[in-house]
Amino acid sequence: MLPELGIIEGFYGPLWSWQERTQLVEALAPEGYRFYLYAPKADPFLRRRWAEPHPEADADAIAGFARHCQSLGVRFGIGLSPFEIFNHFDDDARAALAAKLAWLDRLGIRDLAILFDDMRSDTSALAATQADIVHWVAERSAVDRLFVCPSYYSDDSVLDRVFGERPANYLEDLGRLLDPAIQVFWTGEEVCAREISPGHLARVTGQLRRRPFLWDNYPVNDGDRMSRHLHLRAFTGRPADNARHLAGHGINPALQPTLSQIPALTLVACYRQGKGYQYGAAFVSAARATLGDALATQIQRDLLLLEDSGLGRLSREKLAELQRRYQTFDHPAAREVVAWLAGHYQVTDDMVQTQ
């Protein structure tokens, strides 16, 4: 059983080009990826400066990509992060949000996500306030489907350490107060979950009073530590039986759009093959389909260096050797490896704190 699969472009760090997004969606749409949520943290007009309009050229590019997704049978949506709006949902905030929703309607998007992730709260009734905001949006938006990302979107205690302790019964209250038609994102027991089990999803379903819509933070590699590693290996820890416990499954891709296709394809194999799934064989198959035999073989040989050792443990000599090696390949994935080796994909703490 294949759940609804899609891409959630929700990472910190450098923005992709529209050509890169187009190539990714064209590669994955025939394999079962049926939605694309545009929500990069680096787009300031969706997060820190959300109340300001996008520049005309950017708006035209988003609209053009939305039309292209539709031509491929892929739902296109926007993830809007009205930064800390739950701390001051006053008349000015309502007016700005209404204007933003009108602009989104003009784009013709089908999905809208209101994202409350990675923000601090000084609101006592956080779940009730957020539910009110989402319902206010629902009354004024023409989208087919509405999502919300909670402030506490995982069991992971790192959220409490960074953004303050979660209110008691936050998840249960949010699930009780939200209209059942509204989808709720969830990342698992951890922000970047090593495993997501049917038992865990069943428990969260009870808390939310609906099946969670999985925001899977693999193969994403943003942040200072993770951006020093390429996430290339096949999906593990996502048993096919999860499908019956999920409303859908979106993956947050790596900073490298072409290389992200490799794990993305293995997730399809994981669901389709069920107990017959072998993650090593799935990686080889996906790498060959994405890269061709020669480059796939080279990536497989260097997997320990690229994914496990990472930039922090590669000597200057080894970095230079790898750069020379991948410069011999005329392929966008090889160019991504070369750029990563040169540090062009490094995400700093300052970027995470200011995007």
Would you mind describing this structure in some detail?
This protein is α/β, with parallel strands linked by helices. The chain folds into two domains: 5-280, Glycosidases (TIM Barrel, Alpha-Beta Barrel); 289-354, no CATH class. It is built from 14 helices and eight strands. The chain has helices at residues 18-28, 56-71, 91-107, 126-138, 158-163, 170-177, 198-208, 257-273, 279-291, 293-301, 303-309, 316-326, 332-341, 349-354; strands at 5-9, 33-38, 75-80, 111-115, 145-149, 183-186, 213-216, 248-251. It has an eight-stranded parallel beta barrel with strand order 1-2-3-4-5-6-7-8. α4 (126-138) runs parallel beside α6. The relative contact order is 0.12.
CATH superfamily of the largest domain: Glycosidases
At CATH level 3, the topology of the largest domain is TIM Barrel
Beta-strand percentage range: 5-15%
> Number of DSSP strands?
8
Features:
355 residues, 8-stranded parallel beta barrel, 2 domains, TIM Barrel, alpha/beta
Write the topology of this structure:
Blueprint lengths: L4 E5 L8 H11 L4 E6 L17 H16 L3 E6 L10 H17 L3 E5 L10 H13 L6 E5 L8 H6 L6 H8 L5 E4 L11 H11 L4 E4 L31 E4 L5 H17 L5 H13 L1 H9 L1 H7 L6 H11 L5 H10 L7 H6 L1
Helix pairs in contact: 1-2, 1-8, 4-6, 8-9, 9-10, 12-13
